[in-house]
Design a protein that fits this description.
Ubiquitin-like (UB roll), 2 domains, five-stranded mixed sheet, alpha+beta, 7 strands, Fumarate Reductase Iron-sulfur Protein, Chain B, domain 2
Amino acid sequence: MEISLSVSRSTPKRHFEEFTIPLQKGMTVLDALIYAKENLDHSIAMRYSCRMAVCGSCGMKVNGRPMLACYTQISELKSNRIKVEPLDNCAIIRDLVTDFAEFFSHHKSVHPYLIRNDVKEQDNPVKEFLQKPEEVEKYLQYSYCIKCGLCYSACPTVAADKEFPGPQALAQAYRYIADSRDEGIQKRIDVIDTAHGIARCHFAGTCSSVCPKGIDPAQGIQLLRRYTLSLKR
């Protein structure tokens, strides 16, 4: 059996090129792209690394939906026509490769690390920062984020407002605010509680539906909004 792989190309202008790929058992979309690059057109530009849904490098739109190419089995798509495109809401560098500078800028803006008032203690701890299981449970799922950008690509608010931090950054802000070891709440609130911040989210839920790790950014944003409002009472 064969499949038709339609790849978005960016030069000389954006268009699609069709490749016929021999289908093999267990083949993923990334496998098909690698076959096309190695055997049919060496100039196809794409980004990948781990091939096991850990690094998040191979995010792209597959048949119109943001997915990890290495994690997406062709058999699960139930079609012999596969269309791959670069992620939305990111500038295209070439073909399927997008610029994540803006995405990571938003991520860094929420201070995605533990902040302690006693910096000396944090840098030279004399004991463990112990946590109860129920304290870990509050933020655990959000620590699984691999920064693949699928939620950012799927977010309609990001498409309309580039200053909006996006679901990944907001969920990570909640991840640290919910961490009992952290003391940097106000620093993060100052970043997210703005005209282009958390209030812009209208909970479309697309971010949660595309996450390859089963994280629920929409829930994190809701919890974060509730927490932010509680500080104003």
